[in-house]
Amino acid sequence: MKNIFLLLLVLLCIKVQSQPVIPQKGIGSKFSLTCANLYFEVDSARGARFTSFKLDDNEIMYVDFVNSGDMAGSTFWPSPQSVWNWPPPVNLDNKPFSKVIKNNKIVFRGNTDTKTMLRFYKTIAANAADTSIIIDYCIKNEKTLAQKWAPWEITRVTNSGLTVFPKSTTSVTGDMAVRTQAISGYVWYDQDATADKAGSKFFCNGKGWLAHIIDGNMLFIKKFEDVSAGKAAPGEAEVEVYTSGTLPYTELEDQGTYTSIASKDSISWRVKWFARVLPASVVVSVGSTSLTTFIEGVLKRESPLTKMEVSKNFTAKIYPNPAENTLQVELGSDFGKDIYLRLSDLQGRIVLTRSISQPRVRINVEDLQPGFYMYDIRQGNESLSNGKLSIKR
């Protein structure tokens, strides 16, 4: 009987963790995914371009396709640009892609570009476990010979706000490098710091993520493969940002490793998108440690695992997991004063705080929505034990 109970519990955990997000067919050629307070839209007729990304119904991207000459939303190109120059190959950038919804994913397939002899695939899904959009890009080489390329994602936002990413060993280069600041291992680019919008681009090797703050409180994070120094395409970099004084948008660009692709073979590259509302305690300014700590926290909570992390000097037990209406908290003999439990959702918002005045307490969670949460047992400003749990109904 005990083994049967454990098996049922494991199956239940798997079911709760999967929480499939079903893609929706929209108006005309548009498809969408809604995940918690995120809305993501793709237009198959426009090269499977990402045409909307909203947080609480507020647009993250620059999406004025009419007044920008189609330079809006988020697209995908092969790198380096020096091979195909300008404009981007239409079959890769803005011509219709075929589409199919399969296994809660939208799969888009483009036509072969006759100049580069490449074909693109884009597979889009949403992960309810960490409130993210998962984008799998695929570059297929339709040429009879091998050729080298790197994947390149270009996402346009309005030309304002604060950009930050972790810096690797190389310096920031390009004519916009003078407008960046490197502080404590991070590169910062504040577009609101000066009225001078002149510039073009900067390049830098990063560490696998790029973040941008819109309107002072909306955080947009792109997480991708960390490219080793010297492994980017010629004349390119893992992180690139483009701004022009005459255009109403900025391009947040990330690239993968420059790789040889055999004839009729392909390479895949995954990017995850997150968007979060910043709490009032996070300072949005160049060099802000509260901001980088918050960003790193979002990425740390990316994993859907529910394993509890316990410090060596403190013992705690929280069960059941998943929970329904109550949580049982049991602390060890090292129980002390001023200890409290804090629950936050996967977007970093604190949803419950309860003082723990004795080694064993029961906490009511029936008012919380089903889903995943991070728990943190704290004493003052110190975290004693933390991990992930789920609530089901």
Description:
With 393 residues, the chain is mostly beta strands. The protein has two domains: 18-300, Distorted Sandwich (Beta-galactosidase, Chain A, domain 5); 309-391, Sandwich (Immunoglobulin-like). It has three helices and 29 strands. It has helices at residues 2-18, 90-93, 289-300; strands spanning 24-25, 30-35, 38-43, 49-55, 58-59, 74-79, 98-102, 105-109, 118-127, 132-141, 147-158, 162-166, 180-183, 186-190, 201-204, 209-214, 218-223, 239-243, 249-255, 259-261, 266-277, 309-310, 316-319, 326-331, 339-345, 350-356, 360-364, 371-379, 382-391. The strands form five sheets. The chain has a ten-stranded antiparallel β-sheet, with helices on one face. Strands 6, 11, 15, 18, 19 and 20 form a six-stranded antiparallel β-sheet that branches. A hairpin with a 2-residue loop joins strand 2 (30-35) and strand 3. The protein is globular, with a radius of gyration of 23 Å. The model is unreliable at 1-18 and 303-312 (pLDDT under 50).
In short:
By secondary structure, the chain is mainly β.
Topology readout:
Layout (H helix, E strand, L loop, with lengths): L1 H17 L5 E2 L4 E6 L2 E6 L5 E7 L2 E2 L14 E6 L10 H4 L4 E5 L2 E5 L8 E10 L4 E10 L5 E12 L3 E5 L13 E4 L2 E5 L10 E4 L4 E6 L3 E6 L15 E5 L5 E7 L3 E3 L4 E12 L11 H12 L8 E2 L5 E4 L6 E6 L7 E7 L4 E7 L3 E5 L6 E9 L2 E10 L2
Antiparallel strand pairs: 1-2, 2-3, 3-4, 4-5, 6-11, 7-8, 8-9, 9-10, 10-21, 11-19, 11-20, 12-14, 12-16, 13-14, 15-18, 16-17, 17-21, 18-19, 22-29, 23-24, 24-27, 25-26, 25-28, 28-29
